[in-house]
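General secretion pathway protein
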Amino acid sequence: MYLNYFGLQTEPFSIAPDPHFLFMSERHQEALAHLSYGLQGSGGFILLTGEVGTGKTTVSRALLDQLPEQTRTAFILNPMLNETELLATLCDEFGIRYAKRSMTNKTLTDKLSAFLLAAHAEGEQCVVLIDEAQHLKPQVLEQLRLLTNLETNQNKLLRVILIGQPELQDLLRRRELRQLAQRITARYHLLPLQASDTARYINYRLQVAGAQRALFDDGAVRLVHQLSEGIPRRLNLLCDRALLAAYNDQVQTVSKAQIRRAAAELGEVGASGQTQGRSFPLVAVTALALVVSVAVTSWLLWPQSQVTATQAQQAAVTPQQPQAMQQLVRAWQLPQPPRTRELCDWLGEYQLGCVQGQLRFDRIQALNLPVLLKLSDGRWQFVGASTEQPASDWTGEFWAIWPHPPGYQLSDSKTYQRWLQTQLAEYQSTTAAADDLNALAQALQERHGLPISGELDGVTLAWLTSHATTIGPRLATAEEGN
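Tokens:
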């Protein structure tokens, strides 16, 4: 209805996976880099997880587009199969003929093995991509593992890409699947878009659809990011409905009013006008100081340094308070953490880190993240949606989860360097050169009341990440620009 009104040639925010509208954010590019590395290695399994609508299919399609011509690919879009149906589906996808009336697991496996050996002899690589893999039965996953046993001295003859929701991580931690889990050589958990990516995403899709000008004002873009939480599928639904609302209102540019109406129609907001889902009210606090500092400057400028960011994070000791920790983990919409792994190390798989320290309660707002506060009896208190003040017996010790910046854990730090330069650019002055990270960090610390260390320490990096993106829960939900 609104195409002619806005001068568009096609619907810009259709949820159909049209390759013409493919937009690769920094997070998507980072995920693609991890998966591409996995395909080049010698392992059999590659894992990509993420919440519904975050763009896992987008990444997998981009990955397949990069595969060499000598690659044979099998797609399994319906994972609700038993072992025999899985083997038969693989044969169908690879074009292997078999007698359907007398097929058994052994005959199908023998045919697949012969096919994989022949493909390897011809210099071809075979890849299986399974979507919605969280629905796979453990027996089916074990059958896949057995298929990947076929290998040469250097490489597996079959690579399997598992794509699914966070529940897939829980499934792979089951004891009977421990051998498969050990064969995963590359994994990535895809987080939602950052605020800056949302603006580029909206403008990119509009340009592809034929728009000659911006159709969303800045306030509308900020609000749609807040309501969608950076999830592309929800972004599409909100923007499509907002364009329709603007058409009905006969206005040329989408504003917050149309975004709010679209959100109400889609059930994204309640009667009070507040977003549903994760929300954390403003806590009367102002800044943060961390005991554990991440040696970011050394890691960025001297990659050969033995002190890596991940090693520094592991100094944060996990609070032994299951109930409070579960509240914090649920706030980040993470699956249940494994009991056999150190939590800070596990969080790294989700591009998250953990920090702890001791500070006044009025020093936490700058980070704007939910935290755990340690009480004098050793218990931990979760500060989130309903906590406005800490308990009177709070010791001053806290523990928090924070989002890593793009490229933070990749060996190639170019993405991370670009992100840092962008975030610190506004703090450049006549006395701070663009490449003087310490001076820029000090300017940021002075402006926002952070502890002045003159370094890109943990508090400064955590502050930057929490203000550069709205990924994850926040203490404050006040909308900017009101």
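Residues 310 and 348 are 8 Å apart (CA to CA).
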